[in-house]
Structures are given as C-alpha cells and as structure tokens.
Specification:
This protein is mostly helical. It contains six helices and two strands. Helix 2 runs antiparallel to helix 3, helix 3 runs antiparallel to helix 5 and helix 3 packs parallel to helix 6.
Length: 171
Amino acid sequence: MSNNSSLLEDFIEREVFWQFFAIIWFALLAIGVLANLLIVVVVKRVRSMHSVTNLLLCNLAVSDLVTILGSLPRILSKLNKLMITDIYCKLNGAIPRITFAGSIMTLCLLAVLRYDALVNTMNQRFRLSLRGTKYAICIIWTLAFLLAVPSSVFLKAEEEIVGKKKVVHSK
C-alpha cells in the first residue's frame, strides 16, 4: 500500500501532472466564464428577462464568475508562475468565502420566493419587486462580505518542503 501511495506522490510532484491539470482547468475555466457571462449579458440586455427570479439567477452567475476567476491565481501558484504573498493569501481566503456566502444566501432567498409562490398561490405574502430584489442582492453581498472578511484577515503565507519541492500555502 505504501508503494502505491509513493507512486502517486511521485506522479503529483512531476511537472507533467501540473501541466495536464492546468490544461483541463483552463478548459473548464473558459467554459465557466463564457457560460456565466452569457447569462449576465442576456439578463441585462433582454428586457423580458428582467424578473425577480432571473435577477437572482444572474446574481448566482456573477458569484460563480468571481469564484472561477478568483481561483486562477491558485492554479498559477501551483505551476510556480506566481509568487504567493500574505495579501494574496488574505484575498484568496476571502474571495471564495464571500462568493459562497453570497451564493448560499441567494439560493435561500430564491427558495423562499419559490416556496411562497407554490404554497400561497393566490395570496403571496412574500413578493419582491425588481427594485426590492436589487436591494436584497446588495444586502446579500454586504452580509457575505461582513461574514467572510474577519476569518480571512488572519491568513498568512507559509512555506514548507514537501518531498523535493517547496510549497507555499495559506494557514
């Protein structure tokens, strides 16, 4: 068993693994960026797409886009093409936390709206206007930022030697 794990560790340490990983990751990055940008552009430009649900779905697309683009420096650092600093560690820790919190709160709001629309079809108690939805999105991102930033402030870059390679990660 230890021989198999040793082979796996040797393979992961090789540059070929990270180059293959980078090719796959960049292909997924391109698809993710194009798909999410398409959603944002369509909802913004097509007037008939301006609904509460579509604005919330557009908000999810923006969150996904920021998550995808925010992970780019992490991949570049794995390929040793980017120097990791304490500021990078703080940003790299904050961006996913902010976007995940924003996505979760958006999905919760969407679920409450859909539930109310299904259960109280004739007498909806919780109905948002387009303007109210824009305010709700601003509140969601403010709360996401306030929840995520305090834990990210304490992240630092630390170097350690793994095998024959120097690895820098946040702790």
